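Give me the fold.
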Amino acid sequence: MKIPHFGKLLSYDIDLTLSLEKLSALMLRRREKSLMSLLTAKGQLLEISSSEIGPGPGRITVELLPDPEFSLPSDDWSLRDEGVYVSEKKLLSLDVAKSFDPTLNASVAEFPGHLFNILRRAPALVPRSFEVKLIALAKALKKPLPEGVEESLLSLIGFETGKNFLPSGDKALSGMILTGRSLKMGRKIRNDWFSRLGSEIRRFLHRTSPISACYLKYALAGKANKVQQDFFAAMSSDLVGVSEPSFQAIAEDEINGGPFFLEGVKIAIQMVYPDVFR
């Protein structure tokens, strides 16, 4: 099979080359105009995205992906020797592009009041029925009994509200996780629920799709895509002129963020509000 042309390679997740375990026997599991997702039998994810989507964990970014109307092999993909291969044909060489560090280093030491007001004033990000599920999880995380957390998580993880890139519930949970991490790194705002949330989510990763489980694992490991990194950097500074554009950028990006992700961010900030202003 003739392989259609991939655009110039722009960046790659540095962890892809630092990992001792190479990705072999990858299968093409999802293909869209701007993003390809490949998985191993063990659930390891490699994505190839266009510049429109940008860098992220486990992701290689090129200027342009082949048009979806062109056929691509479904299996025998691999990442080895600093390159992406199909069978024995090398498609992309990582050594000609710059690396991207997916580690989220933003630390939120002060309450992000400007961003929180933007989130509260914005038109309803998600259906009210979905918001109720997140509020129930937030309340359960503040109580010592595990049953409420389990019940709430099972209503969210893998939960889909429509035809989205990832399950809506998983996007919201990722928003909560990354917000909790940024608050914890700030070391000033108490968020005892953060570690518990991570532990509970790990127990139920099997309840969602393999690709979405990888995205949740990235969040749990403190890894974020470029759009998310910029958003949490804006949250850290919480400047009026920066908060609004960062909110708009992530709200309009369904793959790297989206309204459900932002709803998770809002709920996480609401959880620490009483401790900051009591």
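Strands lie at 9-13, 23-31, 35-39, 45-50, 59-62, 77-80, 83-86, 89-93, 98-100.
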